[in-house]
Amino acid sequence: MTTSWSGQHARAGRLGVLFAGLGSISTTLIAGVHAIKTGIGRPIGSLAQLGGLDIGAPGSPKFSYLRDCLDLVALDNLVFGGWDIVKTDAYAAAKRAAVLETGLLETLAPELEKIRPWPGIFDNRFNRRNDITFYKKGRQFLDLADQVRSDILQFQDQNHLDRSVLLWCGSTETYLEPSTAHETLSGFEAAMRQSDHAVIAPSMIYAYAALSLGMPFVNATPSRTVDIPALMELAQRSGAPVAGKDLKTGQTLLKTILAPGLRDRMLGLEGWFSTNILGNADGETLDDPAAFKTKRESKLAVLQSMLRPDLYPELYGRFHHDVRINYYPPAGDNKESWDAIDIFGWLDYPMSIRVDFLCRDSILAAPLLLDLALFMDLAKRADLAGPQEWLAFYFKSPLTSNGKPAEHELSKQLIVLQQQLRRLAGISSATPANA
Ligand SMILES: NC(=O)c1ccc[n+]([C@@H]2O[C@H](COP(=O)([O-])OP(=O)(O)OC[C@H]3O[C@@H](n4cnc5c(N)ncnc54)[C@H](O)[C@@H]3O)[C@@H](O)[C@H]2O)c1
């Protein structure tokens, strides 16, 4: 292999990548970056590391790797840290997650053991675990946010960082209805001055802390977190980019590739039944119906928006769509996602498609987290604040501004992403942001 993954773009400085939740997806990213830097792994799945862009003038295409035309922070200059509600280190957490082989983890142990989380924010109304002792205490939620802010500032100082991004990668929280306290920043801050307001989830406190420092914030999970007007208002005011929610990794990725193809051929849909069999900690969390409600909402929305039953009622006016998750410990992180798709064609003749994706959840998620950390940092340096719709490519339920419907189609999301990357690369022929 001749490509060098590190050492590029030293001028982009040093970036702190902070995870709230040091579990399977975050430790798979951290271990992966160390493996790649030492030449024992490759960044497969990362657009930032492997993808290309047309940087030519209209009519004269010219290919460039993103890593060559964008001022991305080099892998050598990423410094990892974070919070968890379990006292651990990244080596022990990665071992428990059992995504990567023991031999690889042993090799990386000296680097991984150095990463020890700060106590996280825990509230058992949002996470039903009853064995948690490693968490921050405070009189009110604002005190907890202050402690998160001082963890961040101290970390930046100790590691001589130029900037940081915060990625929420904690367990899916129990379903939270929107409430009036979420509507405005002043209402939210009033609720933050209490200690037992059931409308403030732990993930919102991390988000509040990061955004108030103007730091980019990513919600990798389906939890509501930053998807409330109050925190969007804070992001705009403080100049912080936000992105979410719920990484588009396995089944939904395939859904957003397949469904537009069926629609483009004007094939009808009778039903789409999706089930998942997984045995990792995420699967265990999602075994709780209250947490699964959050995930289900995020997984169900995609088909309606791509198939447009409003435009094509004969084809898509009456399809059944269901999504299930089955926790089955022997499967570990190697999730099986199974789809039964019942379609109809010419003269209403029925046909069926079966998709059986034997995937690896965190192996699919880690490169998305890496891209998001690097691209959100670019967004921050380009003074982009609020929801970064151009990053919809990475999410099951992309955040949009002003309640605009989200784009779910992967190919359309990629076009938007590439247009924005061309702008960030300073290509003068790039389409203007609002085109
Ligand atoms: N794995 C995937 O492909 C994938 C895809 C999309 C979304 N997600 C979402 O990403 C999240 C993380 O997934 P995972 O597989 O790494 O899960 P995991 O269970 O392995 O890790 C979650 C970690 O978060 C910690 N945690 C829980 N609540 C916390 C809090 N309040 N503060 C700090 N830490 C907290 C847990 O102790 C655990 O270490 C989940 O919400 C999952 O639904 C995962």
**Cα-based radius of gyration, to the nearest Å:** 21 Å
Low-confidence regions: none
Helix content: 25-40%
Fourth-level CATH superfamily of the largest domain: NAD(P)-binding Rossmann-like Domain
Secondary-structure arrangement, i.e. CATH architecture of the largest domain? 3-Layer(aba) Sandwich
Report on this model:
- This protein is an alpha/beta fold.
- The chain has two domains: 15-247 and 363-424, NAD(P)-binding Rossmann-like Domain (Rossmann fold); 251-358, Dihydrodipicolinate Reductase, domain 2, CATH 3.30.360.
- 39% of the residues lie in helices and 17% in strands.
- It has 15 helices and 13 strands.
- It has a seven-stranded parallel sheet with strand order 5-4-1-6-7-8-13, with helices on both faces. It has a four-stranded mixed sheet with strand order 10-9-11-12.
- A hairpin with a 5-residue loop joins β11 and β12.
- α1 crosses α4 and α10 packs parallel to α12.
- The longest helix has 21 residues, at 361-381.
- The radius of gyration is 21 Å and the shape is globular.
- The model has no long low-confidence stretch (mean pLDDT 91).
- The structure holds nicotinamide-adenine-dinucleotide.
- Nicotinamide-adenine-dinucleotide binds at residues 20-25, 83-86, 93, 97, 120-122, 127, 169-172, 202, 220-221, 246-247, 249, 280-282, 285, 361-362, 364-365.
